[in-house]
Amino acid sequence: MRQKDMYHNSFEESYREPFGAAPKGSPVTLKIDISDRYRVSHVILHYILDRTDDEKTKEMDLCSQEHQQVSYEATIRMPERPQLIWYFFEIILEDQTLFYGREKSYESGEGKVYNHIPPSWQITVYDPSYKTPDWWKNATMYQIFPDRFYTAGELEMEKAPETSLVHAHWENDPVYIRNERGEVIRWDFFGGNLKGITEKLDYIEGLGVSVIYLNPIFEAESNHRYDTGDYHKIDPLLGTKEDLETLIKEAAEKGIEIMLDGVFSHTGSNSIYFNREGKYDSLGAYQSKNSPYYSWYTFHHYPDEYDAWWGVGTLPTLNKENEDYQDFLVHDEESVIKTWQQSGMKNWRLDVADELTDDLISQIYRQLKKKDESSVLLGEVWEDASNKTAYGKRRDYFLGGVLDSVMNYPMRRLMLDFMKGEMDAYTVHRRLMTLSEHYPKEYFYAVMNMLSSHDVERIQTMLEDYLPDDFSQDEAEKLILKQIKSLSLWLYAFPGVPSLYYGDEAGVTGGADPDNRKPYPWGRENKELLDWYQKIGQWRKEHTALRTGHWKSFTLDKDVIGFERWTENGVDHFNEETSDERMLYLFNRNTRKKIEINLPIQKGKWQHLENKKRIFSSKNNVLTIELEPCEAMLLRLMK
C-alpha cells in the first residue's frame, strides 16, 4: 500500500474543522480520503476521552468521491468537561483491517497507515470562558536576575548573609565556592538592588518592554534566592517593601508591569519555617514536631531525613496539599499573595509549576483574578503544556482557570536544533504547527518565548558552540551577530510574549549556571546589538500584526523558515479593532550559502523594515528574494 492511498492532515481545515483546540461542547468534523482502488466496507473513527480513558467509536459517512479518492466524514461533539481527546481511524476492507494515525506521537499534521493501533492525534478541549489578559498578549518582557542588574547607592555589606562573598568589582565573573561534597558554602553577591532597577526604567522602556520579570526577591541566604527564608520580607540586600512599591508605581507610569517569581514548591532550610540552621527567632519544623510549620514538610526520619527538591538538603519540599500551607500562601488575610497584592503586585511566575498541584495553582489563579482580572499567572513548564503529565497526572494548565501562560521552552529547543542543523525547516514548521494545534489560541498568543534565561546557557555562547571551526574569529563574530539578530527578530515577530534576558542585548555571554548570571556590562555594551534590540522592540510596539495578528507558517527550503503575520477587515486575530497590515518574516540559517526563494504571496510591493529602500515586488503573485547566509528579514506589504 502507498502511504498517500489514505490521507488525513490535522493542519488542514478540509480534514479537521475547526483547526486546533476546540471549545467544550463544540462540534469538530474529521475527514479522511481513501483511494478508490480499495474495496472499503466501513471506516470507523475512534476517539478516546483522556479523563476517563473511555473509548468511543463512530462510523464515518461517505461524503464525496472524486479524483480517484473517496472521502469519509464524521462530526463529533466535544465533551462538556475540558480535557484531551485522542483520535485515529480504522479502515475495514474486504480482506483486512488497517489503521491510520499520527506518524509521530509528538508531531501532528499528516498521518500514515498502520496494521495495528496507531499513535493518535490530539484535540485540546478547553473552557472558552477563560481569557488571557489583552495587555499580556501584547507584552514584551525583560527578565532580570536582581543581584546582577544595577546597584543604586552604596552597597550595605552588613545586610549580606554571613556566608556571603561580596565582589569588589562589578566586572568580576560569578563563582560558586563549594566544599568537598560539592555544596555551596559561600554565596557571591554583586549588590544589584530594586532601586537600581527603578533608576534604569528609562533604559528598559527604550527596549520596548512592557513587563519586567524579576527572579526571586524575598529574603534568602543564596544569591539566586530560590531558597526562600521569609515570603513576607524583601531581601535586605535588594531593598525594602517600599522600594518594591516604588518600582511598581514608577514602572506603571511608563506602561510597564512587574512580575515576581513565586517559589512555592520548597523553602530554604535556613528559613523562618524550617530553621535548620537556627538563624531565625522561630520554632521551625526542623527544630520541633510542635512547630506550626511541621505539617508543611514530609519527614522520613526526623529531623534529618526529609523530602527536598531534587534531594538538595537546603531546599526542603513543601506539602502543597496541606491546608495550613494553602491558607498561609493564598487565603489568610495576611497570606503571601494577598500581602503583595496590597503592595500592587498582581503578576507571578510560578517556579517549577509541575511540582505544584493544579488545585493549588488554581487557588492562586482565582485569588489573583478576584483582586484584578488583568493579573497574569505564568508557569515554569519545559514541555508541551497541553498534554504535560507530572507525577502520574495529566495537567490542566491550558484547559481554563489554572495558568495564563507558560515558558515556551519547546519553541526555544526547535530554534536551537534548527541552528545546530539537527532539524530542518520542514520539521520546525510541523512542530510549530503542532504547538499551535495543541494550544488554545488564547494561550498560544500568551506563552513566554525566550532564547536565554537564568536556567540555560546564553544564546550567544550556544551559537558560538554550533559554528564550524573553519571560520576565522572575525568571520565567526559577524555570523553570530547575524544569527542573534535573526533569531531575536523571529521571537519578536512571532505570536506570544518575547522575553529578553537582561544583558543579551548588550552581548553578554555565559555557559551553565553561574556563568549565565554575569553582571550587566554598563558602559561596555555591544552597541550594534543594543541598537538592534531597541529597534525590534519598537517594531513590535508599532505593529499590531506582530502581536495579535493572524499567523501562518511556511517553508520552501530545508534551510529557510518563514511566516506571515496580518490583520484584515479592521480586526486582529481576537476580533479587536485595529488597522489592516501584513508582515512577512524570512530566515536563511545556512552559514555559507545564499538561497533564493520563490514564495506564492499576495501581489504588491514588500518593504524591508530595517532598510526601507529595499523594496521587493511580487510578480504573478510570486515573491522572489535572495537571502544571504544567516540573514533574516521582516517585510511589510506597502499600501
Automatic annotation (TrEMBL):
Pfam families given in the database record: Alpha-amylase
Superkingdom, natural source: Bacteria
GO terms for MF: hydrolase activity, hydrolyzing O-glycosyl compounds
InterPro entries associated with the record: GH, GH13_cat_dom, Glyco_hydro_13_lg-like_dom, Glyco_hydro_b, Ig-like_fold, Ig_E-set, O16G_dom_2
Domain Glycosyl hydrolase family 13 catalytic: 143-540
Gene3D superfamilies in the cross-refs: Glycosidases (3.20.20.80), Golgi alpha-mannosidase II (2.60.40.1180), Immunoglobulins (2.60.40.10), Oligo-1,6-glucosidase, Domain 2 (3.90.400.10)
Any GO BP annotation: carbohydrate metabolic process
Keyword annotations of the record: Glycosidase, Hydrolase
PANTHER family: ALPHA-AMYLASE FAMILY MEMBER, MALTODEXTRIN GLUCOSIDASE
Full protein name: Glycoside hydrolase family 13 protein
